[in-house]
Design goal:
This protein has 75 residues and is mainly α. Helices cover 83% and strands 0% of the residues. It is built from four helices and no strands. Helix 2 runs antiparallel to helix 3.
Length: 75
Amino acid sequence: MNTNAETGSGFLDTAKLALAAAILVGGIVAFYIYEQQSLLVSVSVLLVAVALTVAVFMQTERGRTLWRFIQGSRV
């Protein structure tokens, strides 16, 4: 059995993944909204959105699994 589903953290992980996706989509939309501004502003908004997306994603079980895979592949 999936222990995440039994403990209820599966719903929390799903919510975090949805939040990460929403942040990323919001950053992409903001990039196009601010395209009339300088390129520095547009790219900065996008980079901040990507950084926040990664930060939220790494808080999920899938993010921790990915991080363990990355660390293991370095060896």
